[in-house]
Amino acid sequence: MTLTDACALVPTLKIVADNSIFAAKAIAKLADWATRFTPWVAINGTDGLWLDITGCSDLFGGEGALLDRLRQGLARFNITAHVAVADTAGAAWAMTHFTTNDGIPPSKNRASLTPLPVAALRLEASIVKNLELMGLSHIGDLLSLPRASLSERFGDKLLVRLDQALGVIPEPISPRRPTSTFIVRHAYTEPVTVVASIAHTLDHLLLKLCRLLKKRRRGVRQAVLSLFQANDTVQRIAIGTNRKVQEPKPLAALFTEHLKSFSFCLKDGSGIEIVMLAATVTEHLEPTQLPLKATEAHSRSSDNNHMLVDLVDRLTNRLAGGTVARFTPHQSHVPERAVQICTSITQHLSASWPINLPRPIHLFTPPIPIEAVAMIPDNPPILFRWQKRTHRVANASGPERIMGEWWRGDRWTRDYYQIEDMAGARFWLYREGLYRDTVNPRWWLHGLFA
């Protein structure tokens, strides 16, 4: 229906300009809110949500009670919505768009879908139009025809949508947020407004989570604590670890850092209703061999082995991302590429990369151009000028020739020299280019030795 026709039918119709960006943010926020019912939530188009409540309805007292709570929450948002539950996503979509029913009983998809129009199969408008021109206006009309003739005339998409709605073939739904295999939750009978109570619940959930991890021989690397408030907002606290953790204590310390500084708006009914803890990233953890006699000294020694890692975890989660880092070797002969920044002190390197020749403790990035005087073709400089100061060379060694990495498109050649001036300062210089290739090669200062 055009806007003119709509205004003619309803003169008092209120017209609002479409804002797709605002709508996308609103549906994403609603999807986050819906994760209190199931972690498997996906956005469907611009105005719908998929919720896979398999195994979750019992937590709310059954599918009917879950739907009631879902409707109550949507009503608080002043959202007019039709909610339905079915065995398949296609059948649930058909119920919400073409009926006033709130669901289909188990194994009753065929009988419930038969009287619905073919548009309930989420087909393209052209296919729906052609079906109606042939007198096939209901799904039941399609079920009575041979499948081969339908496929030959309308293609495979019609049969795929039909089979998905009936549950003959699966219809995978990708959740908006990555789901975790290890999830534990706690629902309060009344909204909680005391942080100490939330911390106590967190300790209980961490114990349950770590027991699950130990059974599967997994260790936590990343975890998320979701706090669902009574005002229908969700607060999430994410933490990461530099080692695979199976113990509640170090995880509790990381979450407590955030809970202490967490600002709860506890007035106006915004207490916490549900607490959910998920291990979003886990890794396989090999069992450790304990001594025959586990003494107290051995226990203290095991704790000390992780003290540095746990300290880095606390600093990393307290400060901004990437603040705590270290340099690790990288397989490259080019000096500025021979190291990489690593945020984990326990990251396993793919291979060692020993450098037998001395390297400066300070590397200039990019190198600093200088003026130098040297005997050709490969002698070290006898003096060079840097920062408006002339440095006369007392001792020198080299050259160490390093060529560019051809697979990166490098075409340069460098001859490096270790230089010591009359004052005892040590430098790392290089000449870019060879005298046989250029008349006046350029000199650069690349680093300083101790």
Descriptors for this entry?
single chain, about 450 residues, alpha+beta, DNA polymerase, domain 1, Dna Ligase, domain 1, 4 domains, four-stranded antiparallel β-sheet, 14 strands, about 30% helix, elongated
How do the SSEs run, as a string of H and E?
HHEEHHHHHHHEHEEHEHHEEEEEEEE
Number of strands: 14
Strand order of the largest sheet: 9-10-11-12-13-14
Q: What is the name of the CATH architecture of the largest domain?
A: 2-Layer Sandwich
Secondary structure category = alpha+beta
Which stretches are low in confidence, meaning pLDDT under 50 for 5 or more residues running?
Answer: none
Could you tell me the radius of gyration in angstroms? 34 Å
Q: Supply the number of structural domains.
A: 4
Measured by DSSP, the beta-strand proportion falls in: 25-35%
Can you give the helix content as a percent range?
A: 25-40%
Q: According to CATH, what is the topology of the largest domain?
A: Dna Ligase, domain 1
In round numbers, the mean pLDDT is: 85
Can you identify the CATH superfamily of the largest domain?
A: DNA polymerase, Y-family, little finger domain
Largest sheet, in brief, is: 6 strands, antiparallel, barrel
